[in-house]
Give the backbone structure.
Amino acid sequence: MQTVMSRFSPKALRSGILAAGALALLALAGCGEQEATTEQASAAPPPAAADGIVLRRGNGAEPETLDPHKSTGVPESWIQYDLFEGLMVPDGKGGLIPGAAESTEISDDQLTYTFHLRPDGKWSDGTPVTAHDFVFAWKRLVDPKTASDYAYFLWPVENGEDITLGRQPVDNLAVEAVDDLTFRVKLRAPTPYFTSMLHHHATYPINKAAYETHGDNFVRPGNYVGNGAYMLAEAVPQSHVKLVKNPHFHAKDEVQIDTVYYYVTEQLEAELRRFRAGELDVTYEVPVSQMDWVQANMPQNLRLAPYFGTYFYAPNMTHEPWKSNKDLRLALNLAIDRDVIVRDINKQGQIPAYGWVPPGTTNYENQAPEYAAWTQEQRDAKAKELIQQAGYGPGGQPLEVEILYNTSENHRKLAIAVAAMWQQKLGAKVTLNNQEWKVFLDSRDEKKFKDVTRHGWIGDYNDANNFLELFRTDIGKQNPSGYSNPEFDKLMIEANRTEDVERRAELMQQAERIVIEDVALFPLYFYASKHMISDRVENWNDNLPDYHPTRFLRIKQ
């Protein structure tokens, strides 16, 4: 089969892959896939008259948790932008504006940040938001007992890294409440992107009194106390999260929408049907299977835009054969036809990716390997050569690969396509393993997946550091592959402590080239955001990070 396929024209090869994908869809139906056949959100109640002005948002997977120090996914972050307010907040246009802090002072040596909190900042129970709340929250984030995947967000703070790694006590974190409205932070080295991180949920304050009363259940309905534009009213598993306007929010008079429903919409075709029926105002995504129809019939509602992130597959480098067999990793990476994926399968404006850090990154030149300029036929030929060198294929071991992905029609179709490519070109026997979101996150983070997992990373702030840090040996669960390279670690540590912008970029570019050379991931494409937006919704501004807090949206009356 490999010999015959190698003589096909590029068009025939693409057709063969797509046809094989359709056959694989049937063949793999019993291989761990458990796609639901019903619309999860159908049990969710429609908005009531008492809800006032309502926005109904599709939100993908069931939220993992609404604890800002423990959540990791985009579905949770959308909700948390409404529930909490960090020192900085997204303005809904791609920029950041002052949030809980009305002003910031930075010392001449760039090491001390003094945040002056707004005097009208209130929790949803009416009590003041104070600097003591930030001190409490930030210490909880870095505390090893919290086991936060995002503890490294505060590693720029003096002693933050040592505390997370158990080398110093939590009280040594260099943060202090100078008074109720003055929060001071000392950094270990100048960090130019520090303020741009402070909109992220990991840096939110939490209400100390609510936490001391309810412990880790402080974010459940009835226990919740937040400082954002909305309050948590309901959280019904596999159905919806309902938020209502916070009467104590400092900018409440500027918030037009009274109630927000976030519906669980993992089944994207069902989500689109609900949008067409007028039951949703915003979709989480758009199913790839319906892109041609949507573009032909509802172009006025379709929003496609560049998105600051990378979709990739991660091999499990914590065990063999992936740990030490670079030829095997590279063979699978080369055999993935990115052009077929973005043009013939996704059709959503993504850009084929061969590197890791996405376009649009500030003060950074994107890196790509030599084979990015090859034809796909050249990459396929090299892949077949490498698979032999790796000891697989004819005369070698049979190659068996399992792809893990979370419940989503888009992830499923892409996994089928990649499986077909590996089967046709490399003779691999590929199985698909579909898991529900929370189970999937545990399997992926704990490196319990057998071979390869689908992954995606959306930039939390516009700096290459936010992508490259993930591959540090000491970063913990966030490291997608369990990758470890001392040379890479050394470059990243040096970059984090370098003030010169050009030198810092050069160090990170060297680090990215090492990750690419080591094949620590299989990049597939750079994201594009894709949503269906109702004609009722106003002030939706496409932006690179795809941030759309409800407080800035309007409903046409």
Q: What stands out?
A: The longest strand covers residues 302-315.
